[in-house]
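Marked as duplicate of an earlier ticket. Keeping the data here for the record.
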Amino acid sequence: MRQLNASLETQVQERTAQLQQALNFEALLKRITDKVRDSLDERQILTTAVQELAIGLNVDCCDAALYDLEQRTSTICYESIRSDRIQPAVGKTVLMDAESTLYEQGLTGQCIQFCWQVSLFSVLRNIEK
C-alpha cells in the first residue's frame, strides 16, 4: 500500500510540474503576443520576441536569423544575451550545408526552432569550452 501511495504521489508531482510548465509557456506566449500588438515595427517585434523567449525559457542566449536559400546561409539578425561570457553574434553568417537537417526543413517551408550544439555555438559566439 505504501509503495502504491508513493507511486501515486510521484505521478501527481510529475503531472503538477507538467501543468505548471504549460501555464508558464502560455503566460510567455501571452506576454509576447501583447507586446507584438503594441507595435507594427518588425524590428521591435522580433527584438521583443527574442528577449521574451530568452527570459521565459531561462536561457543564456536566444537569437533569430534570416535564411538565404540561394546562398544556403543563415545570418543572425536579432539576439538577446543574458550572460557576460557570451559574445554578440549579430551579423554572423552560418553555412547551412553544415546543418543539413535544418536546411532541408527550411526548404520544405517548415518553421525551425533549435538549440546549437555546444561546439558550433562556441565557434559562433567565440566562447571557450
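See parent ticket for discussion. The two ends are 49 Å apart (CA to CA).
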